[in-house]
Amino acid sequence: MLREISTLLAKDFRLEWRQRAALGGLLLYVGSTVFVCFLSFSLRGGTPPPPAWNALLWVILLFAAINAVAKGFMQESPGQRLYYYTLVRPQAVILAKILYNALLLTAVALLGLFLYTVFLGNPIQDAPLFVANLILGAVGFATTLTLVSGIAAKAGGNGATLMAILGFPLMVPMLLLLIKVSKNALDGLDRSVSQQSLLTLLALNMLVGAVSYLLFPFLWRG
């Protein structure tokens, strides 16, 4: 299983490197969105207040995550998926996709946070908590959206639209928890205040990962 996951993970990294235009487009989206926010608030003579700063950051990261994960399964043809079916187990496929998307979204989130603080200031008072919450959010986006991407690709038709329809309702509870914890980090509250929310986020990530592991083989064979 581990060898299959590592092989599939290396394959995804090689494909991403060969299709650098898609990765460049994702980075351009994050950079240009941050710059537009900077221009909007600079015209008003300052930086956004912390609640607006926090909300805008998560909106940018959410749409970046959807754009990044959407191509995971939908860029593969049915023939490719049938070929993988003869070589590896479906559990290895979904775990490799989740791990790859988690690494990609973590890198994009950290880069987005860096650009965001450069252009729009840094009101964070508890940086370790904020970064930990950011990484937890990137992993949560990856686990949820990877499974949704697999469902959308298997359904055929306009997979991107179907992924958005299925993904947003699932992301809202997680997004509310992420915004709550990051607001606590912005305000410098004691970390015990955020402990329950962080445990809930961790439990959600583990639950979605377990559901993906158990149900993806049935989706794969469908």
TrEMBL record:
It is a multi-pass membrane protein. The chain crosses the membrane at residues 21-43, 55-73, 94-118, 130-153, 160-179, 199-220. It comes from the Bacteria. It is found in: Membrane. The keyword Membrane applies. InterPro entries: Cyt_c_biogenesis_CcmB (IPR003544). Its main location: membrane. It holds the Pfam family CcmB. Keywords: Membrane, Transmembrane, Transmembrane helix. The keyword 4Fe-4S does not apply. Belongs to the CcmB/CycW/HelB family. This is Heme exporter protein CcmB. It comes from Hymenobacter segetis.
